[in-house]
Design a protein that fits this description.
It is built from nine helices and 15 strands. It has helices spanning 2-6, 28-38, 41-60, 146-151, 177-192, 210-222, 227-243, 306-319, 356-367; strands at 69-75, 80-86, 94-100, 122-130, 138-141, 162-164, 173-174, 199-203, 250-251, 257-258, 330-339, 345-352, 375-377, 380-382, 384-393. A hairpin with a 7-residue loop joins strand 4 (122-130) and strand 5 (138-141). It is of the alpha+beta class. The model is unreliable at 1-18, 20-31, 266-271 and 274-282 (pLDDT under 50). 29% of the residues lie in helices and 21% in strands. Helix 2 (28-38) packs antiparallel against helix 5 (177-192). It folds into two domains: 2-258, L,D-transpeptidase catalytic domain-like, CATH 2.40.440.10; 289-393, TolA/TonB C-terminal domain, CATH 3.30.2420. An eight-stranded mixed sheet has the order 3-2-1-8-4-5-6-7, sandwiched between helices. Strands 12-11-15 form a three-stranded antiparallel sheet, with helices on both faces. A two-stranded antiparallel ribbon has the order 9-10.
């Protein structure tokens, strides 16, 4: 097994094709990192303000401050981010805290091109500390990684993916300002102590949640091409669940994640992602799938831009609160919609989530949208299908 697995490594083996970060010893560079951060007035003030609180939280959970190693797991559908810590390379990771991700963009599935509003799925690490972010503070991720560079749109794969504050997003991972301050301080200490690659693994769902897995399976019935990808994500999830160690993941010559050495629990039936039947197509879809653009030079633009689209989604979410079922406090509605070559929304379908009343109203709101600037490919306007998650939550 290992011989076959390692045979998949290709030209970038010398540039860390392994997606499992290597824990390095403290170096002269890493020792200076925290000093540099403290030289920035905004970060210095924040560290002074946050460290005492973090130390108390660590002490309450019988954790050693500061953590030398950090591991971040994010679950898109569940809107959660877990922060795991440890102090020795030989230790098992322990859960420090779970943050609620406060906004969503795109849908399940990996990011494959610029401007698609998608949060990536896969195995990343922090490659940038940005104290001057427009979203309070931000931590950059190494998207596109080696897998993304092979599987995403070659000309416009996208980039600039961050964990940030301010609770708004068009494809990043937003948390509150207080949470990003905590995470920024934790990550700065870990980097200062020698963890050059702080792993951030983004999963479609929390595979321990049967309802989330059911949602994922329903999604995969609609988008069957993602089944192998999501299976490898599940393998890595369970490796960490069993071992509390970073899962060993590499990329093969096709750009696929390889997790063959990870053994899943045989009783795992709740999260079964068995091969699915032929892709389902909504009968009322006016343009066949094979006539829709799969990649474009320019994605459609909502009138007024991304911020205006966010305002539209936020208002729509607020308007739907009264449509929640009795006793229901939250709903996630996965929408797909087609913007034709003239910029008109000619089709909108609530794939899952919500209820009949709510979904019909959301579909109508989408088809009533003003004209977009249409997508284009090689100088020609083209129709494209988009996906958007809408979160409806009672105050």
């Amino acid at each position: 097994m290992k011989t076959r697995l390692f045979s998949h490594l290709f030209a970038f083996i010398s540039s860390c094709a392994f997606l499992t970060p290597v824990f390095s010893q403290t170096s002269a560079y890493s020792v200076r990192f925290l000093d540099y951060q403290k030289s920035l007035p905004k970060v210095s003030e924040m560290i002074s303000r946050k460290e005492d609180t973090l130390i108390k939280q660590f002490r309450a959970k019988q954790l050693i401050w500061p953590a030398r190693y950090l591991y971040i797991r994010s679950f898109k559908y569940d809107s959660e981010m877990e922060i795991w810590v440890k102090n020795k390379a030989s230790d098992k990771f322990k859960l420090f805290k779970t943050y609620k991700i406060c906004a969503l963009a795109g849908s399940l599935g990996p990011k494959r091109m610029a401007g698609d509003y998608q949060v990536p799925e896969g195995f990343y690490y922090i490659n940038e500390f940005n104290p001057k972010s427009l979203y309070h503070l931000s931590l950059g991720l190494n998207y596109p990684n080696p897998s993304d560079r092979l599987l995403s749109d070659l000309s416009q794969p996208g980039g600039a993916i961050y964990i940030h504050g301010s609770c708004v997003t068009t494809g990043c991972i937003p948390i509150t300002d207080g949470q990003i301050e905590e995470l920024y301080v934790l990550a700065a200490h870990a980097k200062d102590l020698g963890q050059d690659f702080i792993p951030v693994h983004i999963f479609p769902v929390n595979f321990n949640n049967p309802r989330s897995v059911a949602y994922l399976n329903k999604f995969l019935q609609q988008f069957n091409e993602y089944v192998p990808f999501e299976r490898n994500m599940r393998n890595a999830f369970y490796y960490f669940e069993k071992n509390r160690e970073i899962p060993p993941v590499i990329v093969n010559e096709k750009g696929e994640y390889v997790t063959d050495d990870i053994q899943l629990p045989p009783e795992d039936s709740k999260a079964d992602l068995a091969p699915l039947e032929q892709k389902i197509t909504h009968p009322d879809q006016p343009i066949p799938e094979d006539q829709l653009a799969k990649s474009v030079d320019r994605l459609p633009l909502y009138p007024g831009g991304n911020e205006a689209f966010k305002i539209f989604i936020d208002k729509l979410s607020a308007d739907m609160v009264n449509e929640l079922d009795p006793g229901q406090s939250k709903a996630f509605i996965l929408m797909e919609y087609i913007i034709d070559e003239n910029g008109k929304t000619i089709y909108a379908n609530a794939i899952s989530g919500g209820n009949e009343r709510m979904n019909l109203k959301i579909e109508k709101a989408f088809t009533d949208m003003a004209l977009w600037a249409p997508a284009s490919r090689q100088g020609k306007n083209v129709p494209i299908k988009m996906k958007q998650t809408i979160m409806v939550e009672a105050p």
